[in-house]
Amino acid sequence: MANLLKIKNLHATVENKEILKGINLEVNEGEIHAIMGPNGSGKSTLASVLVGNPKFEVTRGSILFKEKELLDMDPADRAKEGIFLSFQYPIEIPGVSMVNFMRAALNEQRKYRGEEQISASNFLKLMRDKRELLGMDSQLVSRSVNEGFSGGEKKKNEIFQMAMLDPTLSILDETDSGLDIDALRVVAAGVNALHTPKKASIVITHYQRLLDYIEPDVVHVLYNGKIIKTGGPELAHELEDKGYDWLVNA
């Protein structure tokens, strides 16, 4: 089982305030890691740093992805290398159709890998196959990107984009936020359907309920910019029962 991601002593600031204070984390092929923690602990900051959000400044540490230093890459190249972030609050892009948006993204990825551009017919077949795999309504992918979508539709659309781009590492930043139970099941089923022994996922969540549907191999607790505890799936249940205080005050 090959190592995909190795984060070593990662420190990061935003507006001169240190948020990440020495993160160490390793993710191997085939693994699903859950990162839990209270508000303000640094969970979304970690996701943003991994994909290269320029708002955050890395002051120390390294992030190796497939043995390449991520911190030397711009955000577009990180995406082309196979990292995908499902946003907590997906934005709307009025006037840009999902078809054009996804085809442009896919062709940029193929160009980076030295592959030919995908033909229109093959692209439409791929869209249809992925939509059927995820059990998504065809109307959802024929509109402008997220325009007029409900919260649940936006999250489903994020999973559809993930299916199209076929990333090696998927980062789900509080994908369960604001979802009703039916939408949560659809999103989780999509994540599970796309998972393979060669890929990995990092699931960032406040609540254990998402982990009833996407079962993690490893659970980490992030608090005040550091991972303070790591365990198996049972740790998520313990957090649900006890909260975070028992760890913080231990």
Distance between the termini: 34 Å
Overall 3D geometry?
Answer: globular
Structural class: alpha/beta
Strand content: 25-35%
Give the count of helical stretches: 8
Q: What low-confidence regions span 5 or more consecutive residues with pLDDT below 50? A: none
Helix content: 25-40%
Quick one: biggest sheet? 6 strands, mixed
State Rg. Answer: 18 Å
What labels would you give this structure?
250 residues; alpha/beta; 6-stranded mixed sheet; 4-stranded antiparallel sheet; globular
Question: How is this structure best described in words?
Answer:
The chain is of the alpha/beta class. It is 35% helix and 30% strand. The protein contains 8 helices and 12 strands. A 6-stranded mixed β-sheet has the order 6-9-10-3-11-12, with helices on both faces. Strand 1 and strand 2 form a beta hairpin. Helix 2 packs across helix 3 and helix 4 crosses helix 5. It is globular, with a radius of gyration of 18 Å. The two termini are 34 Å apart. The relative contact order is 0.18.
Write the layout of secondary structure elements.
Blueprint: E1 3-14, E2 17-28, E3 32-36, H1 43-51, E4 57-65, E5 68-69, H2 75-81, E6 83-86, E7 93-97, H3 98-112, H4 120-134, E8 144-145, H5 151-165, E9 169-173, H6 181-194, E10 200-205, E11 218-223, E12 226-231, H7 234-242, H8 245-248
Parallel strand pairs: 3-10, 3-11, 6-9, 9-10
Antiparallel strand pairs: 1-2, 1-4, 4-5, 7-8, 11-12
